[in-house]
C-alpha cells in the first residue's frame, strides 16, 4: 500500500507572531513541521510497524525552506518526499487540487493529514482532498488500526467519540493524542540524506487560489498580570476573591 | 538557517598557529556552516532536552538515578551516544563537530550534562581508542546503547592535578591471570550508576596503566555520594579497591603507557566542556530573559532598565563568542582528521596525535568557557533578584552547577599553564614558528611607530584591535622569554597572564571570522562582535600591563610601556548603545538569538 | 438564494442556527434566506427553523439519522445547485468544518472558513477570521458567484426568531451510500451547564494531581461558582475527565466572562481555546508557566492549599 502524509511547515508554537507588509512575518523565525502533520507521519510509520506493507511518501507544497520539514519526516522514517516548490499562498480548497493530483499519480491508498494546521487554522485540507478524489474521510482520528483489509479506529465528532470502520482508499485527519511522534534518531537522520525529495513546480498542477489574503492584525488583549504570592493561601484567596468581585466584577 | 547541502570543511591549520597566522572567514568552520543533517541532529537533541530532561530535573537533582539511567538509555536509542563509536561496532562514526553540537544542545541541566559527558567522553573514548577487538566486542555496544554507564577513575585524594602521582597499585597474580588492585579513587563521576570503570593504577608502583573493571567485581566498592555544592544530580563517589582481581584481558592499551590515554582523553573532554558551557549559558540566558520580561518594578518590566540590559547583552556576547571559539577549533580538528586514513591499523593513534596538536586550543576553550559561563550564571542570578537566591527558580541551581567547570577536566590554573607551556615547547621544538614571529614583532615595535595598516568593513576597528592584540601577545611572550629564559615555566603568574592574552587572541579572532563570514546578513552579530571585542581587548590589555610590570623596571619598563601604549591605543566604542540594541533583540525574541526582530 | 444548513441536536435546533440566520441577514446579499434541515425525525427542528428563514427545505430521512460528511455534503450541494444558491452558510462546528470543504469542492466555490464576520463588497465576499492558533485576525476576500461560508459559533449575535413561521417544503435527495460505518458511540452528559453557555469556567490541568484532586478542587470550585468545568487535553487523555470538557485547539473554544485555570501550564494549544475570555485567572505552582503571560489575576502557589482556601472564602 502507499500512504501519503501531507505536511505543512509552520511557525513554531513558542515564537511570537509578528506582522509586516500586511501578513505574518516569518523571516528569521523558527519554523517546524506542523505537529498535527507530525502525528500523520508517525501514524503511517506505526501502521507499517504493525504489519501494513506500505511505502510512505510525504508531500509538502511551499517555499524552498519547506524542504526542512520534509527532511525531518524522512528522518523519522518516511521513504521519499515530494516538494511542490512555490512561494504562492494557496487556500486549502486550491491546495487540495494539488494534493489530489499527486495522490492519483502516486496511486495512493491512504492519505493522512493534520486535523488543523497551525498557521491558517484551517481544518479543510483533508476533507477537500477527499472530495476531489471521491474518497471517504474520517476527521479528528484518535486511534487507528489496519487489519489487512479495513481501517478501524475512533474519532471525535460534535457529540463525542465514535468508533468506525472503513475500507481504503480514504483520507484521515489527525489530532493530538493519536500518537507520540518519535524523535528522528541519528542513524535515521543520516539515512535520510540518501532519500529522494522530488521537486515539482506549481505550474504543473493548475491550481488557482480562490481566497485572497487582504491583511492581518495581531490579536492582543492586554492582561493585567496581577500575580499574587500563594504562600499564605487564605490571604491570597481572600485577595483574589476581592479582585474578582470588586474590580473585575465577574463573580457575585 | 543555512540550506547548504554540501559539508563545509575548514582549511587545514595547525594547532597554536592562530597567533602567527591570519585566516580568512572562508577558512574556518562557524555555527552557520552546520549542514542539514547536523541541524537535524541539533534539533533532535534540543527537543529531547526540552521535552524529556527538563521535566525530570527535580528527579535528577534528587539523585533518582533510575531516572538518569532511563534518560541515558533514551539518548542511546536516539544514537546520541554512538557518534564517536566506529561503524563496525554499531556506531555512527560522525565528525567531532556533530558530537560537540550534541553536547552543546543537551546541556540544559548541569547534572545530566556531566552524567552524559562523563559517559560518552572520558567514559567511552579510552575503550574506543585503546580497546582490543575483544574488549570492544564485549563492552562497546552496551555503552553506546546507554544500557551500561561508563565511569573514568583517575583522581585520588592526594593526586588531582598531579595525576602522575597516583598511589593505586596493581600487582600481577602468581598464576599470571589477574592483576590485583589496591587503592582509592576520589571524585569519580557516574560511579553510583556505572557498570564499567576505567581505573588507572601503577603496576608494581611504577607502570602507569589503565584497566577496565566491571561493577560488582569483588574488591571494588563504590563509596558514598559526595554532598556537592552543585551538579547534585550527577553521581560523584570515591572508589575503594581492596585486592580487586581484574583479568589480564582487561588491561587497556599497554602496560606503562596509561598516561597517553589519560592525556589524550582530556583534550577531548576540554573542548566538550566548552560545548557544555555554551549550552548551559544559552539556557541560563533564556531563563533570565523570560523572567526579566515578566518581572515588573517601578511600573515597568525590568528589561526596560539599563543595568539589566547590560547583563543580558554581556551574557549574549559571551555565548556568541563561545560558539565562535568552540566550533572554529573543533572544525579545525575535523579538517585535520579528515586527512587521515580510516582503514589504517593505527588509526586511533593517529586520531589522538591529531587532536593533541590542538592541545592549546582545547585548554583555552576549557578555561575561557568555564569563566564565561560563570559570568553568565552570576549575571542571570542577579537579574532574578531575591528569586535568584531561592530554589524555586532554576537560576540558583545553574549558578551552583557551573562552578565545577573551573575545577574538573584539569583546573583552570593547570590549563593556563598548559596553554602557555605548550606554545613555548612547540616553539622550542621548532614545530611552531613562534620565535621568528616574536622577533619580527620586536623588531617592528622597537623601530618606532609605523604606519597604521588600514582595514575596511563594519569590523575595521576590531580588525585593527586584533592585529595589535597579536602583536602585543607576541611582544609580551618575547619580553617574558628574554627575562626568564627556560625558567619562564616557573613563573606561574606570568604564564597565566600570557595564557589570558593567548585566549583573547583566539576568541577575538574566532568572533571576527564568524561575523565576517555572515557577510552582513545579521546586523545583530556585528553588534555582538563589537561588544565582545571591546571587552576582550580590555582583558588582554590588563594582562599585558600586569605582565610588563612584573618583568621590567626602570628604563626598560618605560620603553616597554611606550610600546604597550602604542599597541593598546584605541577609541572606545559606545558599549552602552551596543548593549541596549543587543538586549533589545534578545528580549524581543525571549531567548538568545541572532535575529534583530523588535517586538 | 442564501442557503443555511440548520444545526440541531437531540431533536432541537441549536443556538448556532440563530447565529447563522443573523449572518445570512447581514451579509448584504439578496435572499431568500433558505434553511435546510437534514436528519431523521426532525419535524420539531423544521418548525423552529421556520422562524429564522424565509423558507425551509426539509429532508427527513432515516438515512440521515447519523451525521456523515459525504452524505451531508452531497445533500447540501444538490440543494444549492437546484436552488441556485449563491451563498451557503454552515455552522463551523467540528462536523460542519468536516463537510463544508466537500461542498465547496463540489460547487467549485471558495470556502470562507470559520469566519467572525462576512459581508458582500461589490460582489466579492470579505470576511474576518482567526489564524495562527487564534493569535491573528485575518481579512480574506473570495471572488466568484458562489461561496461556502462556515461561521464560528458565538461570533454572531443570535437573530431573534420571527413571529411568523415560513413555509416548509420536503425535498428529494439522491444520497450516496454510507462508506464510514459507525460501530459505536460514546456520548458524554455531565448534567452541568455547558462550557459554551457558561459565564464562568473553572478548568484544571495535570497540576491538580489526580482524578480525585480534579473532582475535589475543580468541580468543587465550579460548584461553588455555578461554573462550567473545563479540562486540558492532558487530563482528558489521561482519562480523568470526559472529552466534552476539553478546552483548546483540539477541544472547545470558549469565551466566558471569567476563566479560572488551575494547574494549567498554558501551552499555546490550550490558550488558543480560551484566550479571548473576559478575565483570565491562573493558579499554578510554577512562576515561569506560560499561563501567567495571559492572566489578569494569578496566584503562584500550591493548588492543593489555594483552591480549598478559595472555596472557603467564597462560602463566607
Could you say what the CATH architecture of the largest domain in chain C is?
3-Layer(aba) Sandwich
Give the assembly state of these chains: heterotrimer
Describe the global form of chain C: elongated
Helix/strand order of chain A: EEEEEHEHEHEHEEEEEHEEEH
If you average the pLDDT of chain C, what whole number results? 92
Terminus-to-terminus distance of chain A:
61 Å
Helix content of chain A: 25-40%
N-to-C span of chain C: 58 Å
Main sheet: strands, sense, barrel of chain C: 9 strands, mixed
CATH superfamily of the largest domain in chain A: HUPs
Please give the number of β-strands of chain C: 17
* The CATH C-level class name of the largest domain in chain A: Alpha Beta
SSE inventory with pairings:
The complex is a heterotrimer of chains A (252), B (599) and C (316).
Chain A: E1 2-7, E2 9-11, E3 19-20, E4 23-24, E5 31-33, H1 35-49, E6 55-62, H2 66-76, E7 80-85, H3 92-105, E8 110-113, H4 125-133, E9 137-138, E10 141-146, E11 150-156, E12 160-167, E13 170-173, H5 186-192, E14 197-201, E15 211-218, E16 226-229, H6 233-247
Parallel strand pairs in A: 1-6, 1-8, 6-7, 7-14, 8-13, 9-13
Antiparallel strand pairs in A: 2-5, 3-4, 10-11, 11-12
Helix pairs in contact in A: 2-5, 3-4
Chain B: H1 36-53, H2 57-61, H3 65-78, H4 96-106, H5 110-123, H6 125-130, H7 133-144, E1 150-153, E2 169-172, E3 178-189, E4 196-203, E5 207-214, E6 220-222, E7 236-247, E8 251-252, H8 258-294, E9 296-297, E10 300-301, H9 306-337, H10 347-356, H11 359-383, H12 394-402, H13 412-428, H14 434-446, H15 460-484, H16 492-517, H17 523-551, H18 554-568, H19 575-589
Parallel strand pairs in B: 1-4, 2-4
Antiparallel strand pairs in B: 2-3, 3-7, 4-5, 5-8, 6-7, 9-10
Helix pairs in contact in B: 1-4, 4-8, 5-8, 8-9, 8-10, 8-11, 8-12, 9-11, 9-16, 9-17, 9-19, 11-12, 11-13, 11-16, 13-16, 14-15, 15-16, 15-17, 16-17, 17-18, 17-19
Chain C: E1 2-5, E2 8-9, E3 12-13, H1 15-26, E4 33-39, H2 43-49, E5 55-60, H3 69-82, E6 87-91, H4 94-106, E7 111-121, E8 124-131, E9 136-142, E10 147-151, E11 167-170, E12 181-187, E13 200-204, H5 211-225, E14 228-231, H6 233-237, E15 258-262, H7 268-271, E16 279-284, E17 297-300, H8 303-315
Helix pairs in contact in C: 3-4, 5-8
Amino acid at each position: 500500500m502507499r500512504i501519503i502524509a501531507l505536511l505543512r511547515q509552520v511557525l513554531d508554537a513558542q515564537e511570537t507572531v509578528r506582522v509586516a507588509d500586511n501578513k505574518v512575518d516569518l523571516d528569521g523565525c523558527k519554523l517546524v513541521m506542523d505537529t498535527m502533520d507530525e502525528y500523520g507521519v508517525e501514524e503511517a510509520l506505526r501502521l507499517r510497524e504493525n504489519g501494513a506493507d506500505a511505502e510512505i511518501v510525504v508531500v509538502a507544497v511551499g517555499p524552498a525552506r519547506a524542504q526542512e520539514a520534509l527532511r525531518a519526516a524522512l528522518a523519522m522514517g518516511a521513504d521519499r518526499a515530494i516538494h511542490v516548490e512555490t512561494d504562492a499562498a494557496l487556500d486549502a480548497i486550491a491546495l487540495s487540487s494539488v494534493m489530489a493530483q499527486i495522490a492519483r499519480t502516486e496511486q495512493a491508498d491512504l492519505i493522512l493529514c493534520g486535523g488543523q494546521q497551525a498557521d491558517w487554522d484551517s481544518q479543510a485540507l483533508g476533507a477537500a482532498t477527499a472530495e476531489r478524489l471521491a474518497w471517504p474521510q474520517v476527521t479528528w482520528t484518535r486511534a487507528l488500526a489496519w487489519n489487512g483489509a479495513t481501517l478501524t479506529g475512533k474519532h471525535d465528532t460534535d457529540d463525542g467519540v465514535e468508533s468506525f470502520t472503513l475500507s481504503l482508499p480514504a483520507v484521515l485527519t489527525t489530532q493530538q493524542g493519536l500518537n507520540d511522534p518519535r524523535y528522528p534518531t541519528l542513524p535515521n537522520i543520516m539515512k535520510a540524506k540518501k532519500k529522494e525529495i522530488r521537486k515539482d513546480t506549481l505550474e504543473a498542477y493548475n491550481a488557482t487560489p480562490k481566497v485572497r489574503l487582504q491583511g492581518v492584525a495581531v490579536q492582543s488583549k492586554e492582561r493585567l498580570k496581577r500575580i499574587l504570592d500563594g504562600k499564605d493561601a487564605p490571604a491570597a484567596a481572600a485577595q483574589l476573591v476581592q479582585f474578582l468581585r470588586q474590580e473585575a466584577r465577574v463573580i457575585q | 538557517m543555512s540550506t547548504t547541502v554540501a559539508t563545509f570543511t575548514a582549511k587545514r591549520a595547525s594547532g597554536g598557529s592562530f597567533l602567527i597566522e591570519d585566516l580568512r572567514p572562508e577558512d574556518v568552520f562557524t555555527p552557520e556552516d552546520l549542514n542539514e543533517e547536523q541541524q537535524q541532529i541539533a534539533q533532535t537533541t534540543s527537543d529531547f532536552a526540552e521535552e524529556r530532561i527538563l521535566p525530570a530535573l527535580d528527579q535528577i537533582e534528587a539523585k533518582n538515578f533510575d531516572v538518569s539511567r532511563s534518560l541515558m538509555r533514551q539518548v542511546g536509542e536516539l544514537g546520541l551516544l554512538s557518534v564517536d563509536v566506529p561503524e563496525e561496532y554499531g556506531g555512527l562514526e560522525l565528525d567531532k563537530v556533530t558530537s560537540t553540537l550534541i553536547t552543546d544542545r543537551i546541556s540544559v541541566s548541569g547534572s545530566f550534562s556531566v552524567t552524559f559527558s562523563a559517559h560518552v567522553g572520558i567514559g567511552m573514548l579510552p575503550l574506543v581508542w585503546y580497546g582490543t577487538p575483544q574488549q570492544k566486542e564485549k563492552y562497546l555496544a552496551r555503552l553506546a546503547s546507554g544500557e551500561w554507564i561508563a565511569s573514568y577513575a583517575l583522581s585520588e585524594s592526594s593526586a588531582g592535578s598531579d595525576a602522575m602521582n597516583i598511589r593505586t597499585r596493581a600487582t600481577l597474580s602468581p598464576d599470571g591471570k589477574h592483576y590485583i588492585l589496591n587503592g582509592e579513587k576520589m571524585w569519580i563521576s557516574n560511579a553510583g550508576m556505572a557498570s564499567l570503570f576505567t581505573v588507572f593504577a601503577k603496576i608494581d608502583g611504577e607502570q602507569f596503566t589503565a584497566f577496565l573493571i566491571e561493577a560488582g567485581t569483588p574488591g571494588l566498592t563504590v563509596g558514598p555520594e559526595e554532598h556537592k555544592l552543585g551538579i547534585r544530580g550527577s553521581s560523584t563517589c570515591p572508589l575503594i579497591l581492596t585486592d580487586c582481581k581484574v583479568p589480564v584481558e582487561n588491561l587497556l592499551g599497554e602496560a606503562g603507557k596509561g598516561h597517553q590515554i589519560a592525556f589524550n582523553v582530556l583534550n577531548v573532554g576540554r573542548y566538550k566542556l566548552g560545548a557544555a558551557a555554551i549550552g548551559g549559558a544559552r539556557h541560563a540566558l533564556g531563563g533570565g530573559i523570560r523572567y526579566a520580561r515578566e518581572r515588573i518594578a517601578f511600573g515597568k518590566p525590568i528589561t526596560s532598565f539599563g543595568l539589566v540590559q547590560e547583563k543580558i547583552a554581556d551574557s549574549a556576547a559571551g555565548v556568541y563568542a563561545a560558539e565562535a571559539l568552540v566550533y572554529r577549533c573543533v572544525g579545525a580538528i575535523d579538517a585535520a582528521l579528515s586527512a587521515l586514513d580510516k582503514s589504517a591499523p593505527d588509526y586511533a593513534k593517529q586520531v589522538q596525535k591529531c587532536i593533541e596538536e590542538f592541545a592549546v586550543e582545547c585548554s583555552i576553550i576549557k578555561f575561557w568557557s568555564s569563566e564565561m559561563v560563570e559570568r553568565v550564571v552570576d549575571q542571570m542570578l542577579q537579574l532574578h533578584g531575591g528569586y535568584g537566591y531561592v530554589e524555586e527558580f532554576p537560576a540558583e541551581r545553574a549558578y551552583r552547577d557551573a562552578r565545577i567547570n573551573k575545577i574538573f577536566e584539569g583546573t583552570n590554573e593547570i590549563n593556563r599553564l598548559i596553554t602557555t607551556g605548550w606554545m613555548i615547547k612547540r616553539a622550542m621544538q621548532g614545530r611552531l614558528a613562534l620565535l621568528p614571529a616574536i622577533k619580527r614583532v620586536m623588531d617592528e615595535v622597537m623601530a618606532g611607530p609605523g604606519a597604521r595598516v588600514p582595514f575596511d568593513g563594519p569590523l575595521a576597528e576590531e580588525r585593527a584591535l586584533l592585529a595589535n592584540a597579536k602583536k602585543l601577545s607576541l611582544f609580551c611572550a618575547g619580553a617574558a622569554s628574554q627575562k626568564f629564559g627556560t625558567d619562564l615555566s616557573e613563573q606561574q603568574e606570568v604564564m597565566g597572564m600570557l595564557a589570558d592574552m593567548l585566549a583573547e587572541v583566539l576568541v577575538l579572532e574566532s568572533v571576527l571570522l564568524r561575523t565576517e563570514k555572515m557577510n552582513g546578513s545579521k546586523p545583530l552579530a556585528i553588534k555582538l562582535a563589537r561588544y565582545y571585542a571591546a571587552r576582550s581587548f580590555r582583558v588582554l590589555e590588563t594582562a599585558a600591563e600586569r605582565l610588563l610590570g612584573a618583568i621590567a623596571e626602570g628604563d626598560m619598563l618605560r620603553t616597554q610601556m611606550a610600546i604597550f601604549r602604542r599597541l593598546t591605543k584605541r577609541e572606545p566604542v559606545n558599549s552602552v548603545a551596543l548593549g541596549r540594541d543587543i538586549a533589545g533583540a534578545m528580549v524581543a525574541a525571549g531567548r538568545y538569538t541572532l535575529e534583530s526582530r523588535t517586538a | 438564494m442564501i442557503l443555511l444548513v440548520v444545526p440541531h441536536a437531540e431533536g432541537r435546533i441549536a443556538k448556532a442556527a440563530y447565529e447563522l440566520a443573523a449572518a445570512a441577514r447581514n451579509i448584504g446579499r439578496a435572499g431568500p434566506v433558505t434553511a435546510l434541515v437534514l436528519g431523521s425525525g426532525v419535524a420539531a427542528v423544521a418548525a423552529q427553523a421556520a422562524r429564522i428563514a424565509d423558507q425551509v427545505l426539509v429532508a427527513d430521512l432515516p438515512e440521515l439519522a447519523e451525521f456523515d460528511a459525504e452524505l451531508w455534503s452531497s445533500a447540501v450541494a444538490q440543494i444549492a445547485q437546484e436552488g441556485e444558491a449563491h451563498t451557503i452558510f454552515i455552522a463551523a462546528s467540528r462536523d460542519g468544518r468536516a463537510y463544508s470543504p466537500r461542498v465547496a469542492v463540489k460547487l467549485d466555490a471558495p470556502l470562507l472558513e470559520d469566519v467572525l464576520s462576512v459581508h458582500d463588497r461589490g460582489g466579492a465576499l470579505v470576511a474576518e477570521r482567526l489564524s495562527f492558533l487564534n493569535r491573528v485576525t485575518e481579512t480574506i476576500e473570495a471572488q466568484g458567484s458562489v461561496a461556502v461560508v462556515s461561521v464560528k459559533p458565538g461570533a454572531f449575535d443570535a437573530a431573534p426568531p420571527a413571529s411568523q413561521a415560513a413555509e416548509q417544503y420536503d425535498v428529494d435527495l439522491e444520497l450516496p451510500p454510507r462508506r464510514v460505518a459507525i460501530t459505536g458511540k460514546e456520548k458524554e452528559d455531565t448534567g452541568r451547564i455547558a462550557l459554551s453557555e457558561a459565564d464562568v469556567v473553572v478548568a484544571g490541568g495535570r497540576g491538580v494531581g489526580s482524578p480525585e484532586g480534579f473532582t475535589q478542587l475543580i468541580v468543587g470550585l465550579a460548584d461553588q461558582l455555578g461554573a462550567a468545568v473545563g479540562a486540558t487535553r492532558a487530563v482528558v487523555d489521561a482519562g480523568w475527565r470526559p472529552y466534552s470538557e476539553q478546552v483548546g485547539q483540539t477541544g472547545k473554544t470558549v469565551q466566558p466572562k471569567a476563566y479560572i485555570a488551575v494547574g494549567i501550564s498554558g501551552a499555546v494549544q490550550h490558550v488558543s481555546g480560551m484566550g479571548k475570555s473576559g478575565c483570565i485567572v491562573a493558579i499554578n505552582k510554577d512562576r515561569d508557566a506560560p499561563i501567567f503571560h495571559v492572566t489578569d489575576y494569578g496566584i503562584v502557589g500550591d493548588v492543593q492549599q489555594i483552591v480549598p482556601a478559595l472555596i472557603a472564602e467564597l462560602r463566607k
